[in-house]
Specification:
17 strands; 7 helices; 2 domains; Rossmann fold
Length: 249
């Protein structure tokens, strides 16, 4: 599991420090700060941030909008971007808007607004990239081979393959990993849309297991060992489980 990483591109040292402090207090991982487009691109490709916050006015011939345009047009490495500026100019706004940013903030930025903006930007980015609606991403955000889940006030990245199994309770699901568990306010039907179907299998009414985490199973006792847990298998799902595991009998 990894904390959301943020790349700050800001040429004002004091403002960069404020942002860095606020983000760290909110639980985000702050990467080294860049103050120009060239250095920012180097950090972007070397650190692979989850999101980039860009001041529009930067040192050098190119500004933050040039940087944002490069990031959002790179289909292989595209990430969500948030523009930050103290300039309230309609022409600059229109130019920035053309690069498809996920948010636009006016300095000084309130920490609570910053947190909400980052979460919404990640949500919007995931929805656009993977074809999910915003409503389907209320409590988890698809991102490559992982999802973002809430832990206190923070959004934590949980690798999908770190999930051992899922406990189902009505409109809630609990993702069980080692050593943590995460409560997600989603029904199982909604949650399964986020998971690769070839890797997850329901074994009874209240449990879905990660097939990659299966150590052994006993068809006489009707149990399956996932990680350190021994879980019951119902007759209804026995055949599908055996088939998916590719058992040679």
């Amino acid at each position: 599991m990894n904390t959301i990483s943020v790349l700050i591109v800001e040429d004002d040292i004091i403002e960069a420090l404020r942002l860095e402090t606020s983000l760290e207090e909110l639980g985000f991982k702050v990467l080294p700060v860049a103050d120009n487009v060239k250095d920012a691109l180097g950090l972007f490709y070397s650190t692979d941030p989850d999101i980039v916050i860009i001041d529009i006015k930067l040192k050098g011939d190119k500004d933050g909008i040039d940087l944002g345009s490069h990031i959002t047009s790179d289909q292989k490495y595209e990430k969500p971007i948030i523009y930050l500026t103290s300039i309230q100019d309609s022409l600059i706004f229109q130019r920035a808007k053309a690069t498809n940013p996920h948010a636009y903030l006016i300095k000084p930025v309130d920490p609570n607004s910053l947190q909400r903006t980052i979460e919404l930007a990640l949500q919007q980015f995931a929805g656009n990239k993977y074809g999910f609606s915003n409503n389907s991403l209320d409590n988890g955000i698809v991102h490559r081979e992982s999802i973002f889940v809430k832990k206190g006030k923070k959004m934590i990245r949980l690798e999908i393959n770190d999930i051992n199994y899922i406990e189902v309770e009505s409109k809630y699901c609990t993702l069980i990993s080692e050593p943590e568990k995460f409560l997600v306010r989603k029904s199982l039907i909604d949650l399964l849309d986020f998971l690769p179907p070839q890797d997850f299998q329901r074994v009874n009414r209240n449990l879905v297991i990660n097939l990659n985490k299966v150590k052994e199973f006993d068809l006489d006792d009707m149990t399956v060992t996932v990680g350190k847990s021994v879980l019951p298998i119902s007759t209804k799902y026995k055949k599908d489980l055996v088939k998916k595991l590719g058992c040679l009998q």
